[in-house]
Amino acid sequence: GSSWDKCDFETSLCKALPEFNLQPGWIRRNGQSGMGPPYSDHNGNESAYFLSLSSEMQSSSATLRTNVFLPTDEEHVCQIRFHYWVSQMSGTLTVGLQKHSEDTVTNIWQVSGELQNRWKVNTITINSTEKYEV
């Protein structure tokens, strides 16, 4: 059976992203915040919230880390579907996987800044025989 956790940031961070993991640089805002694009979420809703990097962070990086996920098997694969917006030419969005027996984070998906300035969507599938974080 599949269970979906939907994360829309309307009231807070979601179950997958613990509050204390909101590192400096990430802010929860909407399109009416006066901080520049995007001016709405991926549905065109100007008052809907999303996570955004603050403009002071343009030259450095900031991480979002999920809670611990349980191992996957034939019945339980993990799919993470997310909407993203990359505006600056130099910006890079990376999804990493850290298994609990490993010290390093393995990059499993990446996109670099393109002059597209629009919301895109992506789904990644994760298989891990041990507990992991994304």
Automatic annotation (TrEMBL):
Listed Gene3D superfamilies: 2.60.120.200
Domain MAM: 5-134
Pfam families: MAM
Protein origin, superkingdom: Eukaryota
GO CC list: membrane
Entry protein name: MALR1 protein
